[in-house]
Amino acid sequence: MLESNNTKPWFRDDIVRILIGINLASRASMTKDNQSENFRQGFALALASVAIVIGVQPERILQSDDLALLQTPQHQEG
Is residue 24 a part of any domain in this protein? Predict the structure, then answer.
């Protein structure tokens, strides 16, 4: 159990570093196939959404190819 005197407030830059780390770990584990590309697009969108909520531009946490995925329309399978 955490003691109240050990509580650390989270600052925006702390959260930015956490999101960057999560993104790098995700990128390192991905393979190049269509299913992974769809997952990567959704993952980048989720990270960008969290960034926006905390007042950070997604460009601070995502790499250029991640940002390009956010510009790519979703393909619908029929």
Answer: yes
